[in-house]
Amino acid sequence: MNRIIFTVVFLIVISRHLFPQPVPGDDENIPYLMTFGTKAQKSWGDDDFSQTFFFLIPESFKNPVYFKIFDADIGGTIDEMNGTFDTQMTYSLYGGKEAYSNIDAQGTDPVGKYKSGNLLATKSFGVNPRYDNSWYVFGPFNPTEGEYVKRFGGYIFKIVCDGTSGDDGNMYRYFLSTSNTENKAIEGAFAFAYEYSFRMHDNPKEVSHIYPYVDDRTITVKQMNFDWDKDGFIRVVSVARKGQMCATSNEDEWVSSEFKILDEEKNTSLDFQFIKRQSPAVKNNNVVINVRNQYNELLPFNTIPIGGVPKYKYGIEVKKVEKK
Ligand SMILES: [Ca+2]
Ligand SMILES: [Ca+2]
Ligand SMILES: [Ca+2]
Ligand SMILES: [Ca+2]
């Protein structure tokens, strides 16, 4: 019996390594990233019609890489139509100097030099049945075409998805792969963003997550969310926190709230849980979120949570109570 359990656990661990590196990540349970055309009203759920993602490739990895976009088009079965589909959107891939390290690239708004670095590839889409519900691929690229960032121990690439016209919503996902025909993971690679603009599930039983990483300088955390449509609640779970409720937004508004970081939470990921209202179910809900520390610096959301998905440890709270 123990051997069976061991084998099952072993296979789960192994299969997670063999499975592709999707963005959004497996543990996030977010159906799609979401970016609207520039003529959309913000009340549809996108505050700025632009989204930036970074991809880290560890320097030990030497083979070519591919950046794959699922449902790159704006039309067809996946995407949110407003009237008729008339939206254009551009995906741009950057590497080289400043692709990541330019401060404008790490903000929440598409301003200044947010498209810093060397433009390695770019492609615009509108209605395009060929790339509806299928893949478009940038690559191959040598990992060294990214920007080398010492503290990450690897090369960083950036993809910016910008709405350029129209008022429809683009739903899409990314995969970082070693193959242009299959989704093959790169060990130790991951993706991250400083602001997430995404589509929630329609099924009220599905819970979506993001995992901001809290470093040891973080004392307080401020979350801001946009256009939550009062869809249930957002709560934070961590190794030391059972369920911290966050202030949530209604239609077309930003709402923020803050909480203090506990010692045990330093150098761990927080689990922001997006829990839907059970009834009546909110459909087609697009949401934007970012999280900052006390210096107003954005915390990165990693598609694979650093240190794993944090689990609340009952013992920590007991110890804290005893100390008082
Ligand atoms: Ca339209
Ligand atoms: Ca589509
Ligand atoms: Ca799409
Ligand atoms: Ca919304």
Please explain how this structure is put together.
The chain is 8% helix and 39% strand. It has 324 residues and is mainly beta. The chain folds into 2 domains: 22-199, Sandwich (Jelly Rolls); 201-324, no CATH class. The strands form 4 sheets. Strands 1, 2, 4, 7, 10, 12, 15, 18 and 21 form a 9-stranded antiparallel sheet that branches. Strands 3, 5, 6, 8, 9, 11 and 22 form a 7-stranded antiparallel sheet that branches. A hairpin with a 2-residue loop joins strand 16 (233-238) and strand 17 (241-245). Mean pLDDT is 92; it is low at 6-19. Bound molecules: calcium ion (CA) (4 copies). One calcium ion binds next to strand 10.
Assembly state:
single chain
Write down the secondary-structure element order. Answer: HEEEEEEEEEEEEEEEEEEEEEEH
CATH architecture of the largest domain: Sandwich
Per CATH, the class of the largest domain reads Mainly Beta
**Distinct ligands, ions and cofactors found in the model:** calcium ion
Distance from first to last alpha carbon:
44 Å
Question: Which percent range fits the helix content?
Answer: under 10%
Helical stretch tally: 2
**Tally of distinct domains:** 2
Sequence-ordered SSE layout with sheet pairings:
Layout: H1 2-18, E1 21-23, E2 32-36, E3 50-58, E4 65-70, E5 88-95, E6 118-125, E7 135-141, E8 147-149, E9 154-165, E10 169-177, E11 190-193, E12 196-199, E13 207-210, E14 213-214, E15 220-226, E16 233-238, E17 241-245, E18 254-260, E19 268-269, E20 271-275, E21 286-293, E22 301-302, H2 314-323
Bound molecules: calcium ion (CA) (4 copies).
